[in-house]
Design brief:
Number of strands: 15
CATH superfamily of the largest domain: Phosphoglycerate kinase, N-terminal domain
Shape: elongated
CATH topology of the largest domain: Rossmann fold
Radius of gyration: 23 Å
CATH architecture of the largest domain: 3-Layer(aba) Sandwich
Helix content: 25-40%
Bound molecules: adenosine monophosphate
Length: 412
Amino acid sequence: MAKKTISAVNVKGKRVLMRVDFNVPQDETGAITDDARIRKALPTIQHILKNGGRLILMSHLGRPKGEDREADKAWTLAPAAIRLGELLGQPVLMAPDCVGAEVENMVANMQDGQCCLLENVRFHAAEQIKDKKAKDDPALKESKQSFAQQLAALADIYVNDAFGTCHRDNASMLTVPQMMAGKPRVVGFLVEKELKYLGEALNMPKRPFVAILGGKKVSDKIGVIEALLGKCDTVLIGGAMQYTFMLASGKKVGNSLVEADKVEEAKQLMKLGGDRLKLPIDVVAAKDLKEGTATQVLEGDIPDDLQGLDIGPKTVAEYKKIIDAAQTVAWNGPMGVFEIKPFDVGTMAIAQSLAEATGRGAITVIGGGDSASAVGQAGLEDKMTHVSTGGGASLEFMEGKPFKAVEVLDEA
Ligand code: AMP
């Protein structure tokens, strides 16, 4: 079932509490180095303001502990309020906190079409109390609920436009909409788009459907590989996790990154996948992980003094052939250490193949995180059907895990 979106709700004169993901990267001075996350929320923000809503934005930023405000203060959202104001061409009020009398006062005095940003919700430890923990601990439960209640009381309408945190049961994501039962609780345009593209790609894919999985750890992706083997025609493996599979097939991996305790699971996945699970044919290996270092292309065993750092040219060619024949491609995790040249070659070649696939009408969906950065590095973001804003969230979505923070929202 599709979720009700903000366009189906009359916001005029209403206080709209919207959870966004303004968890932007910053340099040592606090300056925002990439404002993409703020820009991606703009369509929903502009829609609400244009239609006369009184917009109250809330977000997390970084990993403050939520115990000592002085220690946490580097994680203030104030720079995001300034940047948003510049993008909107109107001032954005910055709240001193996200709950409390001062915030309530500020919200009470807002005019139609005005926008404020609440201070970092993670300045309160209650934001991140897990429901599982709170279930057996009345004090924790009370703390999370009373925090969420204060946020919920600020508004008439709840909007979730923070896909990157949709897999979490944080107070601002789940407890607040639970407490706003009876009031409109909807998704913003960004979450709508994420659910549409990820949902369509995974649940009714045009075939052949190919998934490409890479990245560091096989342990993070066992669930998703298993789930995708149940849905895809082919699953292509790359990144450091391929070496755990190499170990599982009795090959030597030298100094490559492996998870020796996951070899059994890798064997199970290979059995489950059969021909549909493809492992690299060759690897690019080096002595050290250094820019411009000497490399060797190897098939089979990797000698003791070398480590595999990228997929090799034969693998690139083989994977390209499979992608060329696909109608739907989902990609999560780089093929090698793409941050350091020349180990970016495999990842960039895969990004290029996906861009070509989009060009001939295939659906290409990039799970967020490092694969999204890699596509950005290749300058191919616009050449993909959809680049997700959520790394962990898109992975859990691909795994088929339900998102309570989305389930609680109104149906269309
Ligand atoms: P993940 O967060 O699991 O998606 O992993 C992403 C990280 O995996 C990136 O920072 C890559 O540099 C790293 N990575 C990919 N391939 C390798 C490899 N062969 N050896 C070490 N790290 C790798």
